[in-house]
Amino acid sequence: MLALMQRFIRAVDAVNYRVGRVIMYGIFVLMGILLWSSISKTFFLPTLWTLEMAQFVMVAYYILGGPYSVQLGSNVRMDLLYGEWSIRKKAWFDLFTVLFLIFYLCVLLYGAVSSTAYSLGYWGTEPFSFFSGLVTGAEEIGHMERSPTAWRPYLWPIKSIMILGMFLMLLQCLSELFKDVLRLKGESI
User: Fold this and answer.
1) Are the CB atoms for 2 and 178 separated by under 8 Å?
2) What cellular-component terms does GO give this entry (predicted)?
3) The predicted structure's pLDDT at residue 83
């Protein structure tokens, strides 16, 4: 069981490390979009797509970069008491609190799946069965949701990125949970 936990930790950490390293360059994409927005407003006709595309890029940057941030331990913590604790006490506290985070991420993941199914034209109450039906051919994509802005992009791509980001964050939190269990057992990680 411990070897399985260590393999899971290595696999999830490797995936989130690579995704995080690629996504961290998304800030340059965001800067390019905002620079083009400024240039087009100053010298040409203003473009309709820049503000909303900048928002989409920022969402992807934030959502997909979150697991990498957790992996590096660069997320925000209240260090008033935590910083003085022993490694074992920190592991117990992290083990306890990550369970709340996992529950919260499961709720967010369900909401992201439901919202993505809605954006693909599904108005039912079982979004997971809709996606399994899409794979098997039992379901069809309906009227796709679009943004109410003048540009009117489809919303399913950014909502799909939300699903991916929540799923990667959930996997990273499970990895952190397993790391805490291994620390409490005295195993090296």
Assistant:
1) no
2) plasma membrane
3) 80
Q: What is the DSSP letter of 24?
A: T
**Residue 33 CB: number of other CB atoms within 10 A?**
21
Residue in this structure with the two tokens 């919303």, named with its chain if needed: 155
- What distances in angstroms separate CA 140 from CA 3, 128, 131, 147, one per listed residue? 42, 14, 10, 21
DSSP secondary structure string for all residues of 32-53:
HHHHHHHHHHHHSPPPSSHHHH
- Class of residue 133 by CB neighbours under 10 A (exposed 0-12, middle 13-18, buried 19+): middle
**Tokens read off for 38:** 């400024």
- In angstroms, the Cα distances linking 136 to 110, 116, 121, 125, 174 are 21, 18, 17, 19, 30
Strand partners of residue 34:
none
Predicted local confidence at residue 82, as pLDDT: 81
| Ordered alpha helix ranges (H), 73-187 | 79-82, 87-119, 127-136, 156-184
> What pTM was computed for the model?
0.90
Instruction: Check residue 124 and give its pLDDT.
Output: 86
Distance CA 44, CA 20 (A): 35
CA 109 to chain CA centroid, Å, is 9
